[in-house]
Amino acid sequence: MARAARYGGPHWRRVLAALAGSDARTAYAQIVLGTKPPDVLAGFKEQRRNRALVALLESGLVERNAAGELVAPDSVFRNLLNQQPRRQAQTGVHRFMRLGRIERYPAGRAERRELLAWLAKEAFGSGEELTEKQVNERLLAYTDDVVLLRRYLVDFGLMERTPSGSTYTRPEETPD
After folding, report:
1. Which of 59, 85, 81 is nearest to 70 (CA)?
2. Which residues on neighbouring strands pair with residue 129, listed in sequence order?
3. In 22, 110, 138, 139, which residue has its Cα 20 to 30 A from 3's Cα atom?
4. What is the location of CATH 1.10.10 in the chain?
5. How far is CA 152 from CA 4, 32, 63, 145, in A?
6. What are the two backbone dihedrals, phi and then psi, of residue 22, each rounded to the nearest 5 degrees?
7. Digit-coded pLDDT (tens) for 103-131
8. CATH of domain 2-82
9. Average per-residue pLDDT for the chain
10. Could you give the percent of the chain with pLDDT greater than 90?
11. Which CATH architecture has domain 92-169?
12. Confidence of residue 176 (pLDDT cuts 50, 70, 90)
């Protein structure tokens, strides 16, 4: 499924957030240079060390190999560059986009709905259940203001939210 591949792997914001922390940056450098897991951030308190390693693992900068050792894959930065959208034509909904991200929302309700419907189909599978965090991660590819975009999708009926807000679903498509 192409959709899974598109959202798999590291996201540049998570990578930068991980590297913004000096502990994670130090741990990453040590791992790249081949330091064995028990010696990464040696001398740090366990909680501080674990926090840095979790940030690296969650960002995709570091992964565990078959032996359980921490390794920094060579492909991580190449994969981040490959995620960048190709130049798109300035027609249809794409006239509201720049480099694959929403530059501005259409003023007209019909055009706004068209843009949001396109985005919902691009980002979410029909009937797919997601947590708010998962929805936000996907929407980050299209805008920095994920709260506004998520609200628009719900208001326009393109995403359904449980009353508790714990789960979001793109409704099943119905024939017209």
Report:
1. 59
2. 169
3. 110
4. 2-82, 92-169
5. 24, 42, 36, 11
6. -65, -35
7. 999 999 999 999 999 999 999 998 899 99
8. 1.10.10
9. 87
10. 61
11. Orthogonal Bundle (1.10)
12. very low
Q: In this model, does residue 1 exceed pLDDT 50? A: no
Block residue for tokens 């960048």: 84
Closest CA to 100 of 138, 132, 65: 138
Tell me which amino acid residue 69 is: E
CA dist 119 and 105 (Å) reads 12
Cα separation values, 70 from 40, 54, 66, 67, 107, Å: 9, 11, 10, 9, 49
* Total-model pTM: 0.51
Task: Evaluate whether 12 touches 23 at the Cβ level (below 8 Å).
Answer: no
Largest Cα–Cα distance of the chain, in whole Å?
A: 64
Tokens at 81, concatenated: 């560059």
